[in-house]
């Protein structure tokens, strides 16, 4: 009996050994297969070391692990912006290299730019803008008692006048326009209209400029009286007090290097108020009689004709 039980016991032990032997062989194979397919498998510690997912790894293990290689993202360097619009000086420099453009015109553009940087937009478009009138008086100008009309304004500045354009040579038409409109409120008395009259009647002298006769002749087309006069300071104040206006032809100095016309329309405690058809800056200042007197070459006073 004892031997039979011993044999049975030995058979059980042998069976267990064989079972665990087979299991020991199969489990690693199964684990390898499952790992290959991406499945995490836990086996008995006595048979196989468990593979822990990253979330179960210790902090020290994660710290010891090399950081994944990351290629830094490099933003492309933007291409430099290139302006397609040339500067005023570039327009002049290019024109100087063009044999079809008169050197005298190029010099006039350079003189204008050197004298007043405000004119840069006009020069940039000088050779590309259409030489046509682009509009009449603005509503805000109509509300002002003495509006300023800039000769190189895009509304009329590119219109041909004499040797070049109103923008460069039209100080006389622009000054007369300011006086005639301020006195009569006739909206047709724009700089381009005065320039057209001057050209048609032959008042523009090529190579010289607008003849002074225009200053007294054109007012006959309006209810305005014109008289040639270089006033004293007291006479200037008296005429302005009566609502009269002056146009002065100026020599070299604060307003020009060659010749220029300006309008004087009022005065205050600091000096006389001027509308310079070439310069906003000059028109925002007040001028003492002493400064003006030394530059005045001729003058005309304008008033409404008495009925």
Automatic annotation (TrEMBL):
Q: Where is the Peptidase C39-like domain?
A: 146-277
The protein's organism comes out as: Candidatus Blautia faecavium
Q: Please give the start and end residues of each transmembrane region.
A: 21-42
Pfam families tied to this protein: Peptidase_C39_2
- Region annotated Disordered sits at 57-83
Checking Gene3D superfamilies in the record gives: Cysteine proteinases
Q: Does the keyword Transmembrane apply?
A: yes
Coiled coil stretches, renumbered: none
Its lineage reads: Bacteria, Bacillati, Bacillota, Clostridia, Lachnospirales
Q: Does the keyword Transmembrane helix apply?
A: yes
Q: Which InterPro entries match?
A: Peptidase_C39-like
Protein name, entry field: C39 family peptidase
Q: Which UniProt keywords apply?
A: Membrane, Transmembrane, Transmembrane helix
């Amino acid at each position: 009996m004892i031997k039979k039980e011993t044999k049975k016991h030995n058979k059980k032990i042998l069976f267990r050994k064989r079972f665990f032997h087979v299991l020991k062989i199969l489990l690693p194979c199964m684990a390898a297969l499952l790992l290959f397919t991406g499945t995490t498998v836990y086996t008995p510690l006595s048979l196989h070391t468990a593979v822990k997912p990253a979330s179960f790894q210790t902090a020290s293990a994660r710290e010891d692990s090399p950081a994944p290689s990351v290629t830094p993202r490099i933003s492309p360097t933007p291409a430099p912006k290139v302006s397609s619009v040339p500067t005023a000086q570039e327009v002049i420099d290019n024109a100087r290299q063009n044999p079809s453009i008169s050197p005298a015109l190029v010099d006039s553009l350079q003189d204008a730019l050197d004298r007043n940087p405000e004119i840069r937009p006009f020069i940039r478009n000088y050779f590309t803008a259409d030489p046509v009138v682009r509009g009449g008086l603005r509503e805000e100008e109509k509300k002002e008692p003495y509006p300023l009309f800039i000769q190189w304004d895009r509304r009329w500045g590119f219109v041909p006048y004499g040797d070049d354009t109103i923008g460069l040579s039209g100080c006389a038409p622009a000054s007369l326009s300011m006086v005639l409109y301020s006195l009569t409120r006739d909206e047709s008395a724009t700089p381009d209209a005065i320039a057209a009259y001057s050209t048609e009647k032959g008042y523009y002298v090529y190579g010289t400029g607008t003849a002074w006769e225009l200053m007294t002749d054109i007012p006959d087309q309006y209810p305005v009286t014109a008289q040639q006069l270089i006033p004293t300071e007291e006479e200037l104040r008296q005429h302005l007090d009566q609502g009269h206006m002056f146009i002065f032809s100026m020599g070299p100095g604060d307003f020009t290097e060659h010749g220029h016309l300006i309008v004087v329309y009022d005065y205050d405690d600091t000096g006389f108020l001027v509308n310079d058809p070439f310069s906003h800056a000059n028109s925002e200042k007040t001028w003492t009689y002493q400064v003006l007197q030394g530059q005045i070459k001729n003058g005309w006073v304008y008033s409404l004709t008495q009925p």
